[in-house]
C-alpha cells in the first residue's frame, strides 16, 4: 500500500518558518530553502506508561542540575542524520529505502545506559539511553540506509555511532553540568527502577522515514 501522509500542508513546498521562539529556542542545523525537505530515517519507539514514569523520575532529577531541561515527547532511535532532499527526490529515495530494507526481520535491543550528548554545532544538549545490546543489527540497518544516502550524494551516518533513545534536551552545550555526578545518579535511577531490565528491552517492528510533513513506514518482517 502507498504510504499514508500525516495531515499537513498539501502543498509540495514546506512552509517556511525560522522563528526559533516557536520551537523552544532550537536552531536549524541548516538553512531552510523552499523545495528542500528535511529528511530523517529512524526506528520509532512507542512509550508505555512505565517508561514515562521512569522518564519523569530522570528528568525531575536532572533538572536539579539543569533546570531548563525539557522532556522528549516522541521517542526514536536514529538510523541517519537529518539530511536535505529536494521534493522530486522523495519518491525515488523512499522506493530505494523500501527495496533495501525489505529483507530485515524484527529484533530486540536493550537501551539501558544513560549518556549525555550534544549535537554537532553544540547548540543543544541531550540525555539519552544508549543501546548496550543489539548494536550489530543496528549497524546492518545503517549500512543499507547509508547505501541509499550515497545514491543521492547525501551525508551518511556517523562512523562509530552511539545508538540511543533521547529522553530530554536543552538549548546550549550544558554537558558539563550533566556528566559526572549527575550522570551517575541518573544511571542509579535506571538500574534501580522496578522491571527496568524488561522495560528497556525494546522490540523494533518498523522503520520510518520522515521527509518534511510526510511519513513513510517500512514494517520489519
Describe this protein with a few key phrases.
nuclease, single chain, hydrolase, 10 strands, alpha+beta, Usb1, five-stranded antiparallel β-sheet, disordered N terminus, 221 residues, 29% helix, Cyclic_Pdiesterase
Topology, element by element:
Elements: E1 36-45, H1 49-62, E2 70-71, E3 75-78, E4 83-86, H2 90-101, E5 107-118, E6 124-133, H3 135-151, E7 164-171, H4 175-178, H5 181-192, H6 196-199, E8 201-204, E9 206-211, E10 214-219
Antiparallel strand pairs: 1-3, 1-4, 1-9, 2-7, 5-6, 5-8, 6-7, 9-10
Helix pairs in contact: 1-5, 2-3
Structure description:
The protein is an alpha+beta fold. The protein contains six helices and ten strands. The chain has helices at 49-62, 90-101, 135-151, 175-178, 181-192, 196-199; strands spanning 36-45, 70-71, 75-78, 83-86, 107-118, 124-133, 164-171, 201-204, 206-211, 214-219.
Describe the structure concisely.
The chain has six helices and ten strands, in the order βαβββαββαβαααβββ. It has helices at 49-62, 90-101, 135-151, 175-178, 181-192, 196-199; strands spanning 36-45, 70-71, 75-78, 83-86, 107-118, 124-133, 164-171, 201-204, 206-211, 214-219.
The DSSP helix count reads 6
The sequence of SSEs as H and E is EHEEEHEEHEHHHEEE
Number of strands: 10
Q: What is the averaged pLDDT score?
A: 89
Question: Approximately what portion of the residues adopt beta-strand conformation?
Answer: 25-35%
Amino acid at each position: 500500500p502507498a504510504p499514508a501522509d500525516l495531515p499537513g500542508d498539501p502543498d509540495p513546498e514546506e512552509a517556511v518558518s525560522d522563528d526559533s521562539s516557536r520551537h523552544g529556542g532550537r536552531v536549524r542545523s541548516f538553512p531552510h530553502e523552499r523545495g528542500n525537505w528535511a529528511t530523517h530515517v529512524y526506528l520509532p519507539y512507542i512509550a508505555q506508561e512505565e517508561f514515562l514514569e521512569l522518564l519523569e523520575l530522570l528528568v525531575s532529577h536532572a533538572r536539579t542540575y539543569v533546570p531548563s531541561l525539557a522532556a522528549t515527547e516522541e521517542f526514536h532511535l536514529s538510523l541517519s542524520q537529518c539530511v536535505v532532499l529536494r521534493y522530486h527526490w522523495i519518491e525515488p529515495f523512499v522506493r530505494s529505502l523500501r527495496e533495501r530494507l525489505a529483507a530485515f526481520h524484527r529484533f530486540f535491543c536493550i537501551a539501558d545506559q544513560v549518556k549525555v550528548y550534544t549535537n554537532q554545532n553544540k547548540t543543544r544538549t541531550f540525555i539519552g539511553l544508549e543501546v548496550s545490546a543489539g548494536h550489530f543489527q543496528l549497524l546492518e540497518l545503517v549500512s543499507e540506509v547509508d547505501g541509499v544516502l550515497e545514491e543521492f550524494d547525501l551525508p551518511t551516518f556517523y562512523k562509530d555511532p552511539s545508538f540511543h533513545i533521547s529522553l530530554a534536551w536543552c538549548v546550549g552545550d550544558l554537558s558539563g553540568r550533566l556528566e559526572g555526578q549527575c550522570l551517575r545518579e541518573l544511571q542509579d535511577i535506571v538500574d534501580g527502577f522496578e522491571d527496568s531490565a524488561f522495560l528497556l528491552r525494546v522490540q523494533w517492528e518498523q522503520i520510518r522515514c520522515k521527509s518534511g510533513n510526510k511519513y513513510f513506514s517500512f514494517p520489519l518482517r
